[in-house]
Specification:
Blueprint lengths: L14 H16 L14 E6 L8 H4 L4 H10 L4 E3 L5 E3 L2 E6 L5 E6 L13 H12 L14 E8 L2 E6 L6 H4 L12 H7 L13 E7 L3 E6 L13 E6 L3 H10 L4 E4 L4 H9 L3 E17 L9 H9 L3 H9 L28 H11 L3 E8 L2 H16 L2 E8 L1 H9 L5 E6 L6 H8 L13 H12 L3 H18 L2 E3 L2 E9 L2 E2 L15 E2 L1
Parallel strand pairs: 1-10, 1-11, 13-14, 13-15
Antiparallel strand pairs: 2-3, 4-5, 5-7, 6-7, 8-9, 9-10, 11-17, 12-15, 12-16, 12-17, 18-19
Length: 523
Protein backbone atom coordinates (compact mmCIF):
# COMPACT_ATOMS: atom_id res chain seq x y z
CA UNK A 1 0.00 0.00 0.00
CA UNK A 2 1.31 3.44 -0.92
CA UNK A 3 1.74 5.79 2.01
CA UNK A 4 -0.37 8.92 2.16
CA UNK A 5 1.95 11.84 1.29
CA UNK A 6 -0.12 14.24 3.39
CA UNK A 7 0.40 12.60 6.77
CA UNK A 8 3.13 10.78 8.70
CA UNK A 9 3.28 6.99 8.45
CA UNK A 10 1.20 5.07 10.98
CA UNK A 11 2.98 3.97 14.14
CA UNK A 12 3.43 0.35 13.04
CA UNK A 13 6.19 1.51 10.73
CA UNK A 14 9.78 1.83 11.78
CA UNK A 15 10.48 4.44 14.41
CA UNK A 16 13.20 6.00 12.27
CA UNK A 17 10.79 6.98 9.52
CA UNK A 18 8.00 7.78 11.95
CA UNK A 19 10.21 10.33 13.70
CA UNK A 20 11.85 11.61 10.56
CA UNK A 21 8.70 13.20 9.15
CA UNK A 22 8.05 15.79 11.88
CA UNK A 23 11.74 16.29 12.65
CA UNK A 24 12.53 16.86 8.99
CA UNK A 25 9.85 19.51 8.65
CA UNK A 26 10.76 21.18 11.95
CA UNK A 27 14.42 21.29 11.05
CA UNK A 28 13.69 22.76 7.67
CA UNK A 29 11.36 25.44 9.05
CA UNK A 30 13.45 26.46 12.05
CA UNK A 31 16.85 26.07 10.38
CA UNK A 32 18.03 23.53 12.97
CA UNK A 33 20.15 21.53 10.53
CA UNK A 34 23.53 23.23 10.79
CA UNK A 35 27.11 22.35 9.95
CA UNK A 36 29.11 24.62 12.22
CA UNK A 37 27.88 25.95 15.55
CA UNK A 38 30.11 29.03 15.32
CA UNK A 39 28.58 32.18 13.80
CA UNK A 40 29.30 31.96 10.09
CA UNK A 41 30.76 34.93 8.25
CA UNK A 42 29.99 36.05 4.72
CA UNK A 43 32.47 37.10 2.08
CA UNK A 44 35.85 36.09 0.76
CA UNK A 45 37.01 33.54 -1.76
CA UNK A 46 38.81 30.21 -1.59
CA UNK A 47 40.61 27.92 -4.03
CA UNK A 48 40.44 24.12 -3.98
CA UNK A 49 43.01 21.85 -5.62
CA UNK A 50 41.39 18.85 -7.33
CA UNK A 51 43.09 15.59 -8.26
CA UNK A 52 42.08 15.86 -11.93
CA UNK A 53 40.27 18.01 -14.46
CA UNK A 54 36.49 17.94 -14.84
CA UNK A 55 35.15 16.84 -18.22
CA UNK A 56 31.60 18.12 -17.77
CA UNK A 57 28.32 17.72 -15.92
CA UNK A 58 25.70 16.44 -18.38
CA UNK A 59 25.02 12.80 -17.40
CA UNK A 60 24.29 11.87 -21.01
CA UNK A 61 27.71 13.15 -22.05
CA UNK A 62 30.00 12.11 -19.19
CA UNK A 63 28.10 9.02 -17.98
CA UNK A 64 29.69 8.93 -14.53
CA UNK A 65 30.85 11.71 -12.22
CA UNK A 66 34.40 11.08 -11.03
CA UNK A 67 35.56 12.43 -7.64
CA UNK A 68 36.67 15.87 -8.94
CA UNK A 69 33.34 16.31 -10.72
CA UNK A 70 31.39 15.44 -7.57
CA UNK A 71 33.35 18.00 -5.52
CA UNK A 72 32.42 20.77 -7.97
CA UNK A 73 28.89 19.47 -8.50
CA UNK A 74 28.27 19.65 -4.75
CA UNK A 75 28.22 23.47 -4.88
CA UNK A 76 26.39 23.81 -8.20
CA UNK A 77 23.71 21.15 -7.77
CA UNK A 78 21.58 19.61 -5.07
CA UNK A 79 19.85 16.30 -4.47
CA UNK A 80 16.63 15.60 -2.60
CA UNK A 81 18.41 14.84 0.68
CA UNK A 82 21.83 15.17 2.25
CA UNK A 83 23.61 13.22 4.97
CA UNK A 84 24.27 14.63 8.41
CA UNK A 85 27.45 13.82 10.31
CA UNK A 86 25.87 10.58 11.55
CA UNK A 87 25.16 9.45 8.00
CA UNK A 88 21.38 9.92 8.25
CA UNK A 89 19.33 11.60 5.53
CA UNK A 90 18.10 15.12 6.31
CA UNK A 91 16.14 17.57 4.13
CA UNK A 92 17.59 19.40 1.16
CA UNK A 93 15.41 19.82 -1.96
CA UNK A 94 12.91 17.52 -0.28
CA UNK A 95 11.31 18.74 2.94
CA UNK A 96 10.10 15.32 4.06
CA UNK A 97 9.54 11.76 2.90
CA UNK A 98 7.73 8.57 3.78
CA UNK A 99 7.57 4.98 2.60
CA UNK A 100 4.93 2.36 1.95
CA UNK A 101 4.91 -0.75 4.11
CA UNK A 102 7.03 -2.73 1.64
CA UNK A 103 9.66 0.00 1.15
CA UNK A 104 9.08 -0.13 -2.61
CA UNK A 105 7.29 3.23 -2.78
CA UNK A 106 8.81 6.44 -1.45
CA UNK A 107 6.94 9.74 -1.46
CA UNK A 108 8.85 13.02 -1.21
CA UNK A 109 7.39 16.43 -0.45
CA UNK A 110 9.52 19.03 -2.22
CA UNK A 111 10.65 22.35 -0.91
CA UNK A 112 8.53 25.23 -2.30
CA UNK A 113 10.00 28.31 -3.92
CA UNK A 114 13.23 26.72 -5.22
CA UNK A 115 14.48 27.95 -8.57
CA UNK A 116 17.29 26.91 -10.86
CA UNK A 117 20.08 29.38 -11.60
CA UNK A 118 18.26 30.34 -14.83
CA UNK A 119 15.16 31.37 -12.87
CA UNK A 120 13.00 28.41 -13.87
CA UNK A 121 11.20 26.52 -11.08
CA UNK A 122 12.42 23.33 -9.46
CA UNK A 123 9.40 21.09 -8.97
CA UNK A 124 8.15 17.53 -9.29
CA UNK A 125 8.12 17.76 -13.07
CA UNK A 126 11.83 18.64 -13.05
CA UNK A 127 12.58 15.65 -10.81
CA UNK A 128 10.71 13.30 -13.15
CA UNK A 129 12.29 14.86 -16.24
CA UNK A 130 15.81 14.32 -14.91
CA UNK A 131 15.08 10.68 -14.09
CA UNK A 132 13.28 9.90 -17.36
CA UNK A 133 16.07 11.47 -19.40
CA UNK A 134 18.64 9.17 -17.80
CA UNK A 135 16.42 6.07 -17.92
CA UNK A 136 15.27 6.47 -21.54
CA UNK A 137 16.93 3.67 -23.57
CA UNK A 138 17.04 5.96 -26.60
CA UNK A 139 19.50 8.23 -24.77
CA UNK A 140 21.88 5.33 -24.05
CA UNK A 141 23.07 6.99 -20.86
CA UNK A 142 25.78 5.01 -19.17
CA UNK A 143 24.51 6.58 -15.97
CA UNK A 144 21.41 4.36 -16.16
CA UNK A 145 23.45 1.47 -14.71
CA UNK A 146 23.17 3.12 -11.28
CA UNK A 147 19.38 3.57 -11.24
CA UNK A 148 18.22 0.10 -12.24
CA UNK A 149 16.60 -0.22 -8.81
CA UNK A 150 14.13 2.58 -9.65
CA UNK A 151 11.20 1.55 -11.85
CA UNK A 152 9.57 4.95 -12.30
CA UNK A 153 9.12 8.47 -10.94
CA UNK A 154 5.59 9.89 -10.82
CA UNK A 155 4.29 13.40 -10.29
CA UNK A 156 1.42 13.70 -7.79
CA UNK A 157 1.33 17.50 -7.74
CA UNK A 158 3.95 20.24 -8.28
CA UNK A 159 5.51 19.59 -4.87
CA UNK A 160 4.98 15.83 -4.48
CA UNK A 161 6.92 13.14 -6.29
CA UNK A 162 6.72 9.36 -5.91
CA UNK A 163 9.58 6.94 -6.55
CA UNK A 164 8.51 3.38 -7.35
CA UNK A 165 11.31 0.87 -6.82
CA UNK A 166 11.71 -2.61 -8.25
CA UNK A 167 12.54 -3.97 -4.80
CA UNK A 168 12.47 -2.79 -1.18
CA UNK A 169 15.12 -0.24 -0.21
CA UNK A 170 15.15 0.77 3.43
CA UNK A 171 17.94 3.34 3.00
CA UNK A 172 16.64 4.95 -0.18
CA UNK A 173 16.75 8.54 1.22
CA UNK A 174 20.38 7.97 2.24
CA UNK A 175 21.25 6.47 -1.14
CA UNK A 176 19.74 9.53 -2.86
CA UNK A 177 21.80 12.02 -0.84
CA UNK A 178 25.15 12.12 -2.64
CA UNK A 179 25.18 14.64 -5.50
CA UNK A 180 26.04 12.47 -8.50
CA UNK A 181 25.30 11.94 -12.17
CA UNK A 182 21.95 10.45 -11.11
CA UNK A 183 20.82 12.69 -8.25
CA UNK A 184 21.88 16.21 -9.31
CA UNK A 185 18.87 18.31 -10.32
CA UNK A 186 19.53 19.91 -13.73
CA UNK A 187 17.37 22.64 -15.26
CA UNK A 188 15.26 21.09 -18.05
CA UNK A 189 14.99 24.48 -19.74
CA UNK A 190 18.77 25.01 -19.73
CA UNK A 191 19.45 21.56 -21.15
CA UNK A 192 16.96 22.16 -23.95
CA UNK A 193 18.28 25.64 -24.72
CA UNK A 194 22.00 24.85 -24.65
CA UNK A 195 22.08 21.42 -26.25
CA UNK A 196 25.60 19.99 -26.47
CA UNK A 197 26.98 23.16 -24.85
CA UNK A 198 25.14 22.37 -21.62
CA UNK A 199 27.83 19.92 -20.55
CA UNK A 200 30.17 22.83 -19.78
CA UNK A 201 27.44 25.33 -18.96
CA UNK A 202 25.56 23.59 -16.14
CA UNK A 203 22.52 25.00 -14.35
CA UNK A 204 21.47 23.66 -10.96
CA UNK A 205 19.79 24.89 -7.79
CA UNK A 206 22.91 25.03 -5.61
CA UNK A 207 24.31 27.86 -3.48
CA UNK A 208 26.81 28.70 -6.23
CA UNK A 209 26.48 29.16 -9.98
CA UNK A 210 29.03 28.86 -12.76
CA UNK A 211 30.98 32.07 -13.46
CA UNK A 212 33.74 30.88 -15.78
CA UNK A 213 35.50 27.74 -16.96
CA UNK A 214 38.91 27.44 -18.57
CA UNK A 215 39.39 23.80 -19.51
CA UNK A 216 42.42 22.25 -17.86
CA UNK A 217 43.02 25.32 -15.69
CA UNK A 218 40.11 26.33 -13.46
CA UNK A 219 36.38 26.41 -12.80
CA UNK A 220 35.13 29.50 -11.00
CA UNK A 221 31.75 29.61 -9.27
CA UNK A 222 30.10 32.60 -7.60
CA UNK A 223 27.47 32.97 -4.91
CA UNK A 224 23.92 32.36 -6.12
CA UNK A 225 22.07 35.54 -5.03
CA UNK A 226 18.70 33.82 -5.37
CA UNK A 227 19.54 30.70 -3.39
CA UNK A 228 16.49 29.26 -1.63
CA UNK A 229 18.29 28.98 1.72
CA UNK A 230 18.95 32.69 1.93
CA UNK A 231 22.21 33.65 3.56
CA UNK A 232 23.63 30.11 3.58
CA UNK A 233 26.02 30.60 0.65
CA UNK A 234 28.75 32.37 2.57
CA UNK A 235 31.65 32.80 0.17
CA UNK A 236 31.72 35.25 -2.71
CA UNK A 237 33.58 32.85 -4.95
CA UNK A 238 35.16 29.37 -5.10
CA UNK A 239 37.80 28.40 -7.65
CA UNK A 240 38.50 24.75 -8.47
CA UNK A 241 41.89 23.97 -10.02
CA UNK A 242 43.04 20.59 -11.34
CA UNK A 243 46.39 19.76 -9.72
CA UNK A 244 47.00 16.07 -10.53
CA UNK A 245 50.25 15.65 -8.61
CA UNK A 246 49.62 15.12 -4.88
CA UNK A 247 52.94 16.58 -3.58
CA UNK A 248 52.41 19.60 -5.85
CA UNK A 249 48.91 20.08 -4.46
CA UNK A 250 50.31 20.06 -0.94
CA UNK A 251 53.06 22.50 -1.96
CA UNK A 252 50.35 24.81 -3.32
CA UNK A 253 48.60 24.61 0.05
CA UNK A 254 51.83 25.50 1.88
CA UNK A 255 52.51 28.43 -0.44
CA UNK A 256 49.01 29.82 -0.03
CA UNK A 257 47.99 29.35 -3.67
CA UNK A 258 45.12 27.10 -2.60
CA UNK A 259 43.08 26.82 0.59
CA UNK A 260 41.72 23.27 0.38
CA UNK A 261 43.10 20.20 -1.38
CA UNK A 262 41.99 16.70 -2.19
CA UNK A 263 44.47 14.38 -0.51
CA UNK A 264 45.14 10.67 -0.25
CA UNK A 265 47.10 8.29 1.94
CA UNK A 266 49.33 7.64 -1.09
CA UNK A 267 51.07 10.92 -0.13
CA UNK A 268 51.43 9.79 3.47
CA UNK A 269 54.45 11.90 4.39
CA UNK A 270 52.68 15.18 3.67
CA UNK A 271 49.55 13.84 5.38
CA UNK A 272 51.56 13.28 8.56
CA UNK A 273 53.09 16.73 8.16
CA UNK A 274 49.65 18.35 7.89
CA UNK A 275 48.41 16.58 11.02
CA UNK A 276 51.17 18.23 13.04
CA UNK A 277 50.74 21.72 11.56
CA UNK A 278 48.20 23.91 13.38
CA UNK A 279 47.71 25.97 10.24
CA UNK A 280 45.80 23.07 8.69
CA UNK A 281 42.92 20.73 9.43
CA UNK A 282 42.82 17.19 8.03
CA UNK A 283 39.28 16.15 7.14
CA UNK A 284 39.05 12.38 6.84
CA UNK A 285 36.59 9.54 7.04
CA UNK A 286 36.73 5.77 6.57
CA UNK A 287 34.21 4.65 4.01
CA UNK A 288 32.42 1.69 2.53
CA UNK A 289 33.82 0.20 -0.65
CA UNK A 290 37.38 -0.09 -1.92
CA UNK A 291 39.89 1.89 -3.95
CA UNK A 292 41.70 1.30 -6.16
CA UNK A 293 40.25 -1.91 -7.48
CA UNK A 294 40.96 -3.66 -10.76
CA UNK A 295 38.48 -5.36 -13.07
CA UNK A 296 39.72 -8.30 -15.16
CA UNK A 297 38.06 -8.46 -18.57
CA UNK A 298 37.00 -12.10 -18.72
CA UNK A 299 36.31 -11.87 -22.46
CA UNK A 300 39.91 -10.82 -23.24
CA UNK A 301 42.66 -13.50 -23.29
CA UNK A 302 44.52 -14.42 -21.15
CA UNK A 303 42.05 -13.09 -18.53
CA UNK A 304 39.37 -15.45 -19.86
CA UNK A 305 41.13 -18.27 -17.98
CA UNK A 306 40.32 -18.70 -14.28
CA UNK A 307 43.85 -19.92 -13.49
CA UNK A 308 45.36 -16.70 -14.79
CA UNK A 309 42.93 -14.50 -12.85
CA UNK A 310 43.46 -16.40 -9.61
CA UNK A 311 47.23 -16.25 -10.08
CA UNK A 312 47.11 -12.46 -10.49
CA UNK A 313 45.08 -12.18 -7.29
CA UNK A 314 47.41 -14.41 -5.28
CA UNK A 315 50.48 -12.54 -6.48
CA UNK A 316 49.50 -9.27 -4.76
CA UNK A 317 50.95 -8.62 -1.30
CA UNK A 318 48.53 -6.01 0.01
CA UNK A 319 50.32 -5.49 3.31
CA UNK A 320 53.54 -4.71 1.49
CA UNK A 321 51.65 -2.54 -0.98
CA UNK A 322 50.28 -0.52 1.93
CA UNK A 323 53.70 -0.12 3.55
CA UNK A 324 55.42 0.95 0.33
CA UNK A 325 52.75 3.25 -1.10
CA UNK A 326 51.00 4.63 2.01
CA UNK A 327 53.44 4.13 4.88
CA UNK A 328 51.18 1.40 6.20
CA UNK A 329 48.18 3.71 6.63
CA UNK A 330 45.90 2.06 4.05
CA UNK A 331 43.82 -0.88 5.23
CA UNK A 332 43.99 -3.82 2.80
CA UNK A 333 40.64 -4.77 1.26
CA UNK A 334 39.45 -8.34 0.82
CA UNK A 335 35.96 -7.56 -0.50
CA UNK A 336 34.02 -4.68 -2.06
CA UNK A 337 32.39 -3.56 1.22
CA UNK A 338 35.06 -2.65 3.77
CA UNK A 339 35.07 -2.54 7.56
CA UNK A 340 32.90 0.60 7.66
CA UNK A 341 30.01 -1.17 5.93
CA UNK A 342 27.12 -2.84 7.72
CA UNK A 343 27.89 -5.87 5.54
CA UNK A 344 29.94 -8.12 7.84
CA UNK A 345 31.47 -11.29 6.41
CA UNK A 346 33.07 -13.95 8.61
CA UNK A 347 34.40 -15.55 5.41
CA UNK A 348 34.56 -13.47 2.23
CA UNK A 349 36.42 -16.11 0.23
CA UNK A 350 39.41 -13.89 -0.41
CA UNK A 351 42.29 -15.71 -2.10
CA UNK A 352 45.49 -15.66 0.00
CA UNK A 353 48.75 -14.03 -0.96
CA UNK A 354 50.59 -17.08 -2.30
CA UNK A 355 53.22 -16.40 -5.00
CA UNK A 356 54.20 -20.08 -5.22
CA UNK A 357 50.60 -21.09 -5.93
CA UNK A 358 50.34 -18.24 -8.44
CA UNK A 359 53.40 -19.47 -10.32
CA UNK A 360 52.00 -23.02 -10.33
CA UNK A 361 48.69 -21.82 -11.78
CA UNK A 362 50.45 -19.94 -14.59
CA UNK A 363 52.65 -22.97 -15.28
CA UNK A 364 49.51 -25.10 -15.53
CA UNK A 365 48.04 -22.54 -17.94
CA UNK A 366 51.00 -23.34 -20.15
CA UNK A 367 51.09 -20.24 -22.34
CA UNK A 368 52.78 -16.85 -22.02
CA UNK A 369 50.74 -14.46 -19.89
CA UNK A 370 50.97 -10.99 -21.38
CA UNK A 371 48.44 -8.18 -21.08
CA UNK A 372 47.96 -4.44 -20.63
CA UNK A 373 46.90 -2.64 -17.45
CA UNK A 374 44.91 0.54 -18.07
CA UNK A 375 45.25 3.28 -15.43
CA UNK A 376 44.90 7.05 -15.28
CA UNK A 377 47.77 9.47 -15.86
CA UNK A 378 47.80 10.45 -12.18
CA UNK A 379 50.94 9.73 -10.14
CA UNK A 380 48.80 7.39 -8.03
CA UNK A 381 47.68 5.47 -11.12
CA UNK A 382 51.27 5.11 -12.26
CA UNK A 383 52.57 4.07 -8.81
CA UNK A 384 49.93 1.40 -8.31
CA UNK A 385 50.43 0.20 -11.87
CA UNK A 386 54.17 -0.19 -11.38
CA UNK A 387 53.69 -2.02 -8.06
CA UNK A 388 51.25 -4.49 -9.59
CA UNK A 389 53.53 -4.89 -12.58
CA UNK A 390 56.33 -6.03 -10.24
CA UNK A 391 54.11 -8.40 -8.25
CA UNK A 392 52.90 -10.03 -11.45
CA UNK A 393 56.38 -10.17 -12.98
CA UNK A 394 57.55 -12.17 -9.95
CA UNK A 395 55.06 -14.93 -10.76
CA UNK A 396 55.73 -14.99 -14.50
CA UNK A 397 53.27 -12.50 -16.03
CA UNK A 398 54.38 -9.69 -18.35
CA UNK A 399 52.38 -6.48 -17.98
CA UNK A 400 52.45 -3.29 -20.02
CA UNK A 401 51.09 -0.18 -18.29
CA UNK A 402 48.90 2.09 -20.41
CA UNK A 403 48.02 5.50 -18.96
CA UNK A 404 45.34 7.85 -20.28
CA UNK A 405 43.74 10.99 -18.84
CA UNK A 406 40.50 10.97 -16.90
CA UNK A 407 38.50 12.31 -19.85
CA UNK A 408 39.32 9.30 -21.99
CA UNK A 409 39.47 6.76 -19.21
CA UNK A 410 35.76 6.30 -18.46
CA UNK A 411 34.72 5.97 -22.16
CA UNK A 412 37.39 3.29 -22.60
CA UNK A 413 36.05 1.50 -19.54
CA UNK A 414 32.45 1.54 -20.67
CA UNK A 415 33.38 0.35 -24.16
CA UNK A 416 35.34 -2.58 -22.64
CA UNK A 417 38.53 -1.47 -24.38
CA UNK A 418 41.01 -2.92 -21.89
CA UNK A 419 42.28 -6.18 -20.45
CA UNK A 420 42.74 -5.04 -16.83
CA UNK A 421 41.49 -1.65 -15.68
CA UNK A 422 41.64 0.39 -12.48
CA UNK A 423 38.33 1.44 -10.94
CA UNK A 424 36.64 2.37 -7.67
CA UNK A 425 33.90 0.88 -5.48
CA UNK A 426 32.36 4.17 -4.33
CA UNK A 427 31.40 4.81 -0.72
CA UNK A 428 27.58 4.56 -0.53
CA UNK A 429 25.45 4.02 2.60
CA UNK A 430 23.81 1.00 0.96
CA UNK A 431 25.83 -1.49 -1.12
CA UNK A 432 23.04 -2.09 -3.65
CA UNK A 433 23.79 0.61 -6.26
CA UNK A 434 27.47 -0.27 -6.48
CA UNK A 435 27.18 -4.06 -6.30
CA UNK A 436 24.43 -4.15 -8.91
CA UNK A 437 26.24 -1.74 -11.21
CA UNK A 438 29.58 -3.54 -10.95
CA UNK A 439 28.62 -7.22 -10.73
CA UNK A 440 25.29 -7.68 -12.53
CA UNK A 441 25.81 -9.48 -15.86
CA UNK A 442 24.01 -6.97 -18.09
CA UNK A 443 25.26 -3.80 -16.37
CA UNK A 444 27.06 -1.18 -18.43
CA UNK A 445 29.61 -0.89 -15.63
CA UNK A 446 30.05 -4.62 -15.10
CA UNK A 447 33.68 -4.20 -16.07
CA UNK A 448 34.68 -7.82 -15.47
CA UNK A 449 32.55 -8.49 -18.56
CA UNK A 450 31.31 -11.68 -16.92
CA UNK A 451 27.95 -13.44 -16.99
CA UNK A 452 27.10 -15.24 -13.78
CA UNK A 453 23.42 -16.16 -13.27
CA UNK A 454 24.04 -17.10 -9.64
CA UNK A 455 25.51 -13.69 -8.82
CA UNK A 456 22.57 -12.07 -10.64
CA UNK A 457 20.12 -14.13 -8.57
CA UNK A 458 21.83 -13.16 -5.34
CA UNK A 459 21.85 -9.48 -6.31
CA UNK A 460 18.10 -9.60 -7.00
CA UNK A 461 17.44 -11.42 -3.74
CA UNK A 462 19.48 -8.91 -1.73
CA UNK A 463 17.46 -6.14 -3.32
CA UNK A 464 14.16 -7.82 -2.51
CA UNK A 465 14.69 -7.98 1.27
CA UNK A 466 14.30 -5.28 3.90
CA UNK A 467 16.06 -7.47 6.50
CA UNK A 468 19.62 -6.23 6.85
CA UNK A 469 20.84 -9.56 8.18
CA UNK A 470 19.50 -11.40 5.15
CA UNK A 471 20.97 -8.82 2.82
CA UNK A 472 24.36 -8.93 4.56
CA UNK A 473 24.48 -12.70 4.10
CA UNK A 474 23.63 -12.35 0.41
CA UNK A 475 26.25 -9.67 -0.16
CA UNK A 476 28.86 -11.81 1.58
CA UNK A 477 28.01 -14.70 -0.74
CA UNK A 478 28.31 -12.38 -3.74
CA UNK A 479 31.72 -11.27 -2.48
CA UNK A 480 32.80 -14.90 -2.10
CA UNK A 481 31.79 -15.72 -5.66
CA UNK A 482 33.55 -12.65 -7.06
CA UNK A 483 36.69 -13.52 -5.08
CA UNK A 484 36.72 -17.20 -6.01
CA UNK A 485 36.25 -16.35 -9.68
CA UNK A 486 38.84 -13.56 -9.36
CA UNK A 487 36.68 -11.19 -11.39
CA UNK A 488 37.90 -8.12 -9.50
CA UNK A 489 41.04 -7.45 -7.47
CA UNK A 490 40.84 -5.23 -4.36
CA UNK A 491 43.73 -3.28 -2.90
CA UNK A 492 42.68 -0.89 -0.11
CA UNK A 493 39.54 0.03 1.77
CA UNK A 494 38.14 3.49 1.11
CA UNK A 495 39.42 6.27 3.34
CA UNK A 496 39.00 9.81 2.05
CA UNK A 497 41.01 12.90 2.95
CA UNK A 498 41.00 16.63 2.39
CA UNK A 499 43.39 19.14 3.93
CA UNK A 500 42.21 22.69 4.51
CA UNK A 501 43.59 25.83 6.04
CA UNK A 502 42.29 26.16 9.58
CA UNK A 503 40.50 29.37 8.64
CA UNK A 504 38.25 27.45 6.20
CA UNK A 505 35.25 26.42 8.27
CA UNK A 506 31.94 24.70 7.59
CA UNK A 507 33.26 21.60 5.80
CA UNK A 508 31.00 18.73 6.93
CA UNK A 509 32.01 15.13 7.56
CA UNK A 510 33.14 13.52 4.33
CA UNK A 511 30.62 11.07 2.91
CA UNK A 512 31.31 9.18 -0.30
CA UNK A 513 34.73 10.82 -0.53
CA UNK A 514 33.16 14.21 -1.24
CA UNK A 515 34.72 17.46 -0.03
CA UNK A 516 31.54 19.52 0.20
CA UNK A 517 32.24 23.26 0.16
CA UNK A 518 28.61 24.30 -0.28
CA UNK A 519 28.42 25.79 3.24
CA UNK A 520 32.09 26.66 3.71
CA UNK A 521 33.08 30.05 5.12
CA UNK A 522 36.19 31.93 6.19
CA UNK A 523 36.95 32.66 9.81
Amino acid sequence: MQANPLRPPPSRRTGTVLLRWPIAVLAAVLGLVTIDATAQKRGGAIVMGLEADVSGFDPLTVGIYGPPTVDVASVLFESLTRLDDAGKAVPRLALSWMHADDYRTWTFKLRPGVRFHDGTPFDANAVKWNFDRQKDPANKCRCAAYITHIRSVEVVDPLTVVYRLNNPMVLFPEAAARVSQNTAAHSPAAVAARGAEYNRNPVGTGPYRLKSWVAGDRIVVERNPDYWDAGKSYLDQITFRPLPDSPSRFASLLSGEVDVIFHEHFDHENLARARKDKRFVVHEAPGNGAFPVYALNTKAPPLDDLRVRQALSMAIDKQRLSRVLTGGQARPATNPYGDASWVKCSDDGALPHDPAKARALLADYGKPVEFKLLVTTSPRGRAFGQALQQFWKQVGATVEIEQIDQGGFIPRALKRQYQVIGWSIVDFPDPDPQTYANFQSASATGLANASNPEIDRMLDRARASSDQRVRSADYCEIGRMVNQQALWLWTFQNHSYAIAKAKVRGIPRKHGGVTDLSRAWLE
